[in-house]
TrEMBL record:
Keyword Cytoplasm applies: yes
Catalytic reactions on record: N(2)-formyl-N(1)-(5-phospho-beta-D-ribosyl)glycinamide + L-glutamine + ATP + H2O = 2-formamido-N(1)-(5-O-phospho-beta-D-ribosyl)acetamidine + L-glutamate + ADP + phosphate + H(+)
Record's function text: Part of the phosphoribosylformylglycinamidine synthase complex involved in the purines biosynthetic pathway. Catalyzes the ATP-dependent conversion of formylglycinamide ribonucleotide (FGAR) and glutamine to yield formylglycinamidine ribonucleotide (FGAM) and glutamate. The FGAM synthase complex is composed of three subunits. PurQ produces an ammonia molecule by converting glutamine to glutamate. PurL transfers the ammonia molecule to FGAR to form FGAM in an ATP-dependent manner.
Gene3D superfamilies in the record: Phosphoribosylformylglycinamidine synthase subunit PurS
Involved pathway(s): Purine metabolism; IMP biosynthesis via de novo pathway; 5-amino-1-(5-phospho-D-ribosyl)imidazole from N(2)-formyl-N(1)-(5-phospho-D-ribosyl)glycinamide: step 1/2
Transmembrane segments: none
GO biological process, one term: 'de novo' IMP biosynthetic process
NCBIfam families in the record: phosphoribosylformylglycinamidine synthase subunit PurS, PRK05974.1
The encoding gene: purS
Annotated family: Belongs to the PurS family.
Name of the molecule in the record: Phosphoribosylformylglycinamidine synthase subunit PurS
EC nos: 6.3.5.3
Species assigned in the record: Actinotalea fermentans
Length: 88
C-alpha cells in the first residue's frame, strides 16, 4: 500500500488570519527572526498498490477539484510519502 501527500496553501494574495496569529505569537514565545507565516493544509491519501505516475496524476486531479478551493488556494505539492520524507 502506498501513500501520497498533498499540500495546499492559500494563494499569496489571500489574507491568512491563522498565519498572522502564529506570526504574532512567535516572538511572544521567544522565537525571533521570522518575518511571516502562512498556514496551509496537508492531506495523506493511502492508495491500494504502488504509487505510479498514473496514481499521482489522479491525486493531482482530486487535489485540484476536491482537496483545494482553486479560487483561494494553490496545490503546492503532490508527492509519494517516502519521496517527501527524503527531501526533508
Amino acid at each position: 500500500m502506498g501513500r501520497v501527500v498533498v499540500e495546499v496553501m492559500p494563494k499569496p494574495e489571500i489574507l491568512d488570519p491563522q498565519g498572522k496569529a502564529v506570526a504574532a505569537a512567535l516572538p511572544r514565545l521567544g522565537f525571533h527572526g521570522f518575518t511571516g507565516v502562512r498556514q496551509g493544509k496537508r492531506f495523506e491519501l493511502e492508495v491500494d498498490g504502488a504509487v505510479t505516475p498514473e496514481v499521482l496524476e489522479q491525486v493531482r486531479q482530486a487535489a485540484a477539484t476536491l482537496l483545494s478551493n482553486p479560487v483561494i488556494e494553490d496545490v503546492v505539492s503532490v508527492v509519494e510519502a517516502g519521496a517527501q520524507e527524503a527531501q526533508a
